[in-house]
Amino acid sequence: MEVMEFFISGDEVFYLSENGLQSLVEGSPVVPLMIERIRELYPQAYRAMCQCYEKSKANRPYFQFLIVRRFCKCNFGNLDHTKRDVTSGVFNIERVSCPLQGECAYEGIICMPKMDSRLSDAEKRVMKLVCDGRSNTEIAEALYLSPNTVKRHISSAYIKTNSRNRADFVKYAKDHNLFC
Asked: Which DSSP letter does residue 165 get?
């Protein structure tokens, strides 16, 4: 996922990416990418938003758009140029101005959510092979996964463990006895 800055104008969400200023609408190419990261990194927020928009679930593109729009409105409202809201799949959550702050039932769940930093079982399987020194291609073949899925699991594991590369992750795995 590329670098993006989100901001709100009126009731609309816009994002600034390498392709310029875009309006976040149903069918925006960023929606499936954001859904994937929200579900992986903020599962409690994802579940809460699924409940909020359950009536729209039959129309999957619209349902996903509603979730991404809500997440952006609650967490990336400011156009601040000092940092990006999304950088390589990492969300830089902001405290946004909200009229319901302090009384919203979803405060700390949808807005200012806590990241789930535990590795999933799939991420653990992939990262075990990373620690064994296997290449992405070898991991994909061994686990019957696509190379893109392997890259996604590695990226997510790096985010969750605050690792920048394989060496950082191997050190993290040793320090935390992940694969002993």
From this structure: S
Q: Where does the chain show beta strands of DSSP type E?
A: 5-9, 12-17, 20-23, 86-87, 90-91
Alpha carbons 11 and 16: distance in angstroms, whole number = 17
- Rounded to an integer, the average pLDDT of 9-36 is 89
Number of neighbours of residue 85 by Cβ within 10 angstroms: 23
**In the CATH hierarchy, which top-level class contains the domain 121-175?**
mainly alpha
Amino acid at 69: R
Whether the Cβ atoms of residue 6 and residue 72 lie closer than 8 Å to each other: yes
The answer to whether 30 and 14 are in contact (CB under 8 A) is no
DSSP 41-73: H-HHHHHHHHHHTGGGTTSHHHHHHHHHHHHHH
* Residue spans per domain, the chain: 5-91, 121-175
What dihedral do alpha carbons 118, 123, 43, 12 form, nearest 10°?
A: 120
Q: Check whether 88 has a pLDDT greater than 80.
A: no
Q: Is 167 exposed, middle or buried (0-12, 13-18, 19+ CB in 10 A)?
A: exposed
Task: For residues 29-40, give the mean pLDDT.
Answer: 90
- The residue with greater pLDDT, 85 or 171, is 171
What is the spatial distance between Cα 12 and Cα 29, in angstroms, rounded to a whole number? 16
